[in-house]
Structure formats: structure tokens, C-alpha cells
Amino acid sequence: MTARPIAVVGASAAGLAAAETLRRSGWRGPLTLIGEESHLPYDRPPLSKQLLHGAWEPEKLRLRTEEQLAPLDLDLRLGTRATGLDVATRTLTLDGTERLACAGIVIATGVAARTLPGADRLTGVHTLRTLDDALALRDRLINGGTPASEGVAGGGGPRQLVIVGNGVLGCEAAAVARELGHEVTVVGIEETPMAAAVGTDVGTLLAEEHRARGVRLLTGAVDGFDSTPADPADGSGPQVTAVRLADGGTPGSRLPADTVLVAIGSRPAVDWLTDPALDTTDGLRCDAYCAAAPGIYAAGDVARWNHPAHGRPLRFEHRMNATEQGMAAARNLLAELAADGPTGTEDGTPAQERRPFAPVPYFWSDQYDLKIQAYGLTAGADRVETPVRDRAGRRILALYGREGRAVGVLAAGLPPRQIRALRAVVADPLPWEEARERIAAATAAG
Q: Structure pTM?
């Protein structure tokens, strides 16, 4: 009888970390890695930075080459969609027909980009989530459909780019597009860019930086797109010409655009998980061990789990979390399987106990030559203070609180040693005043 595999659904950073950890931790049975994209696992943060800018080629984003994956002895299923999961039998459905009965499963399907009605029918309207998305937008910005001329952003000259959404992704893409020489307008429903993620003080500093670089920032909702008609003669589809704002037709309600990036957030990729045993409200709901059900774990952007230090379910779309949670989910899955009976991990050593996953969240954003770094939780704070706010020096430090405790800290323009010291302040939520004292001590150290 053939042993059942452990399946990792999602050939992402989280999925790769899970697969490698399963092998390192002693799983000798079959191991299947399933990825909807046809690409080998790659790093996503550079999509909106180095790759979009043209500084990196796709090969540099690969997390592992084929040769590096070979020792894992994977059943690698690229270009394959998971379309269903029976929780009771741990059976996956792949591409609507194939059934794969598993010993255990790690779900790392990430998120999908949100879009706007009609966007998929128009040439020039893009989202930015996958490698193919980034390459299509890069070709539009750098080549313009023709070879790029020396010293000019694209072969067709500067684009009129409208970015719908002023969150992290929209701001990063705006910075790259301006560096490439394009006309950039960013329109978002938040008055201050990235305010939902980092607060208004930090968002205001970023807004000043973008305006100084020539980015036009607008507040408003988008109502749709204008476009040219399709041309049956050459088979070309409609081309976007403007973004319509939902302001009742007042002057400026149409933003001319030959290129649009829709960056209005994402949704967890859980549509295929229809088994009622799973809670898919804002991601796949898990316990503190990253378990969604017996033998079924989740990791990365898709997972919403009970964070022990914060006492509530959280979901992070951060690169560092993807790797750390992929490793934790894999270890805890093996511990559960070992406790339940004979598994492919038998090597004479005692099974490890499951451990709660309690990371200190970390994220960063590069915009122009400004690097923003944050530890802990910055979104959803009910109190924010900025003890360092130097506009001229482009330096800022912000402390974020929730229910009387400090839960997050963000910095830009500070010495690396100071930034690293800030992590300890929010590793466990501290009383607000104690955290403020530690912040003052950390920044006074020079």
C-alpha cells in the first residue's frame, strides 16, 4: 500500500518553507508541493520594487532553483489548482477532477488581488500580485510596447499612470514609476497614504515625500474607466483612456490615463475551501498552533490564527511571517501526526510537542531612498505617538498602542542599531508608559 503524502498547497514562500521544514524534521514519506502558477517558488516583495524597476530579472526572484529543490524529492505540481478539500478524509481535489488523499496538509495559498468591475476587459489596466502581473506592468512602463530608448523611461515615452489605491503597494509602485520618469497620480479613499497601515503622522511624511517627487495625490472613490472601442479590424481590445471618479461629474472627475494599476488590497485565497468544517472568514481560521482542523494547517497570508501574545486572531501579509509560519505549521503538523501513530518521521527520536506560533511581526517598505521598518502591530491602533518626527532629516519613529499597551513600533531614517533595539519593546505588549520609557532609552543610545 502506497503511503499517503503530506501535501503543501501553495508553492509560495510559506509553502516552500513548510516543505523544507518537513524534510529537515524527518518526514520521509511522499511530499507533494502544489502551485497554481507555473513558476518555481519566488519572492514577492521585489515585484513592486526591483523587478518593476527593471533592476532585477525574474531569475533573481527564485527562492530555489530546480537543482536546489531536487534533494527534497518533491512531487512538484506547478500549474495545478487545488479546487476542493474534504476535511474528514484529508482529501484534496486538484483541477476539479484528481483526488489526492493525504496524511496531512499545509495550506499556503496566500491572497489574490482585488480588482474593479470591467478592469479585466481593458488593455492597460493591471493588478500587481503575481510575477506575470509584474512583468506585464513592467513591460508597459519600461518598453511601452517598443524597445526602450536610451535615457527615456519607455520606448513610447512617459506614461500617464493612475494608481487606484494609496496603501503600501500603491505607494511603492508610485515611487518606482516616478523614478522611471512617468506621470503618476495616486487616488485612494484614505485621505492620507498608508494611513490604515501606519497612521496619519507616518502617512503624512510619506505623502510629503511623494509630492516632492512629483506624484499627484488625490482622495476619492473610483467609479469606473473610460476606454477606446475595440477594433475588430486588428483584433485589439478596448484601451483604457481615463479613470472616472465617483463625484457626480464635477471638474476633474476623469483622470486621463493610458496605464492603470488597481492596488485596492487583496482577499485571502480561500474560495476553494467550501467544507463547512473550516472557518474561512478573513482567511483560514486556525488555533495558536496554526491548525485549522486535525491534520490540516495553514501558513502565510492566508492564515488567521490565535496569536498568544495578543490574545486575538490575526492575519499578516508580511514576507517574514510567511517563512516563519510555514516552518511552524510544518513542525506542528509532524508533531500531531507522530502523536496520532506511526508516521514517516520515525527515526528513533522522540516526537516534538506542538508549540504555539507567537512571532514578533516585521515588515518593511522601500519608497525612493526611504526605508520604513516596523515591528509588531501598526494597523488598528487606538493610540499613536511619534517621539521622533524630523521632516527635514526624513526621520520618524512612531509607537502604536491598543487598549493601554504598546503593540507596535515603526521607524525610518534611524541608525540600524536603534531600529533593531526597538523590536524588544514590542516583543510582548508592554504597558504604554513602560514602552515609552524603553523607546526613549533606545533612541538616546545614539
A: 0.92
